[in-house]
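Quick one - first record:
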Amino acid sequence: MFRDDLIRYAIIFCMAQEIKSYLTHLECPECGKHFSADELQTICTDCNSPIFACYDLESLKGSLTKEEIRLRPKGIWRWAELLPVRKPSFRITLGGRGYPPTGSPASGPIPGPAKPAGER
């Protein structure tokens, strides 16, 4: 139980940290219109196309290392700098730890290629 508690606290700590988002703006891939990243928006008001989040990846390259990411708890917030959420208070998690999905008795097996006969 200690390990689970430790992981839970590490996730809460990372979610509460003020990690800089490198999100710069939102942009429509169809017409090129720019939108503020500080307002909730999903489609372009001019052409109804879904809009994309744009990031300052050049600045991110110089300030974040693979080692820093590797040391963070597994889960979506490991990648906070590359997610379109700036305020830690808006970060939520469903408790996942970044493990690959598996089937359950209720949902059945995960669809995918069949396993060879010797591995069933």
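second record:
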Amino acid sequence: MGARPSPFGRTSITLRSRGLPSGPGSGGPSSTGGASSSGGGVYAERLAKSDPGNAGWQRDLSVSYEKVGGVQVAQGALKAALKSYSDSLAIAERLAKSDPGNAGWQRDLSVSFNKVGDVQVAQGDLSAALKSYSDSLAIFERLAKSDPGNAGWQRDLSVSNAKLADAYGKSNETAKAGDAIAAGRAIIGKLVEQHPDEAQWKQDLVWFEARIAELGKTSPKKKPARK
């Protein structure tokens, strides 16, 4: 029997749409509205270029690049997708740096790091993916610590741990993969206890426990101590 499919989506785990989370699956609506990826992207580029100081238009452009990247991933154009996600990331980094106290910008940046990491995993560039996922995790750790009662940010943190664990596992770093999975499982376990009616988080918990069991089967067996 193969590994249990992740409930989080493509390439291990895919974070939901951008926007400050108020709960699972509640990512805010895209600021580019219903425009197509190509048409909306051209319009967003014009607006952003016309007023570089307008943070909202800069974010619209970042989201447009991300949408284009998503289409390119679906088409299998990973090199092009990495370029689009990297362009999105560059804008997110500028916005986050311009206003470190803006949790929305910080979360956008973390999501961008994860998007880039997903493509790097798909390309087999695991070293780069581990760096991207680690950068994302560091931001989500700060957000989760800043507001322990924000369940959406807590789940984001568990998702980020799972992504990192996936990359460690593919890199044959089983011990580090196990640590990251255990950390994610602990977070989801608390969320399920606090919100027993949330079906998605129960599904997340099942996935984490299955991954822990799989890692246990592949971990090196300790030799018994000599008597």
